[in-house]
Amino acid sequence: MAQQDTDQQHAGVLPVDDDGFVIDTEDCEEREAAYRERGTSRPITVVGNPVLHKECKDVTDFGDELAQLVDDMFASQRTAEGVGLAANQIGVDLKVFVYDCGDDEGKRHVGVVCNPKLVDLPADKRSLDDGSEGCLSVPTAYAPLARPDYAEVTGQDEKGNPIKVRGTGYFARCLQHETDHLYGYLYIDRLSKRERKEALRQMAENEPRYPVVAND
Q1: CA distance linking residue 86 with residue 59, whole number of Å
Q2: For residues 92 and 55, is the Cβ–Cβ distance under 8 A?
Q3: How far is it, in rounded angstroms, from Cα 166 to Cα 84?
Q4: 53 is in an annotated binding site
Q5: Which of 27, 111, 134, 182 has a CA 20 to 30 Å removed from the CA of 102?
Q6: Is 216 a residue whose pLDDT tops 80?
Q7: CB 86 within 8 A of CB 175
Q8: How many degrees, rounded to 5, is the angle at CA 100 between CA 94 and CA 134?
Q9: Measured CA distances, 139 to 29, 40, 66, 209 (Å)
Q10: How far apart are CA 126 and CA 172, in angstroms?
């Protein structure tokens, strides 16, 4: 699909469809590689680090420093073999996340969202998916967690343009998971006490496969 005329759509990083949602499924390999190759991989912060347990600051400067952060996030995400990464997962107190995630139809999505907000959807657009969930900040641990199988997020791209992102299935879970991070919530915060304890046990008994920041 060709990018639509800029007099019809905003001149953002990604083109948008007829409903105004970003088209994040085109040129995924090239776009992800370009971000990643400019970036430097950083270690992942883990549960217990204060930056993960508070709401992050809004992004207000969409300049070179943010661009470098985004590149570093893609590099860090690839090192950790993740499908989404929030800025506070590499210790940065800003509302931005990146993603490289497939949906349940096999489509790959790659993009950046700053200052995300989940759209409160009507009941007829929501059906719960009780699949398993994990987190790079709770390494080696997984637990079932029911989330809506469709999600919409509003926010800005890395240049400050307003954007809307939507996803189904696994990608919908990713959008919700990463937005949660930026408001101080880990997925284990949505589990029962018993399930949370089990997830932390899994984490304690296994070694992460990527560099992490040890909590003091």
Answers
A1: 13
A2: no
A3: 15
A4: no
A5: 182
A6: no
A7: no
A8: 75
A9: 26, 21, 26, 8
A10: 11
SS3 121: coil
Query: Is there a contact between 96 and 69 (Cβ–Cβ < 8 Å)?
Result: yes
Asked whether 59 and 66 are in contact (CB, 8 A), the reply is yes
Q: Coil, strand, or helix at residue 41?
A: coil
In angstroms, the CA 179 to CA 56 distance is: 11
Is 109 among the annotated ligand-binding positions? no
Of how many residues is the chain composed?
Answer: 216
Q: Which residues are catalytic?
A: 178
Rounded CA gap, 85 and 178, in Å? Answer: 7
DSSP string, 74-104: HHHHHHHT-SEEEGGGGT--BSEEEEEEE-T
Least confident of 6-20, 66-80, 189-203: 6-20
Q: Is 130 helix (H, G, I), strand (E, B) or coil?
A: coil
Picking from 165, 131, 161, 167, the residue whose alpha carbon sits closest to that of residue 147 is: 131
Query: E strand or H helix at 132, and its extent?
Result: strand 132-135
**Can you read off the two tokens belonging to residue 19?**
């409903």
CA 48/CA 189 separation, integer angstroms: 12
Rounded Cα–Cα distance for residues 216 and 79 (Å): 23
Q: What is the pLDDT of residues 119-141, one digit of tens each?
A: 998 888 789 999 999 999 999 99
Q: Is 135 annotated as a binding residue?
A: yes
How many other β-carbons are positioned within 10 Å of the β-carbon of residue 54?
11
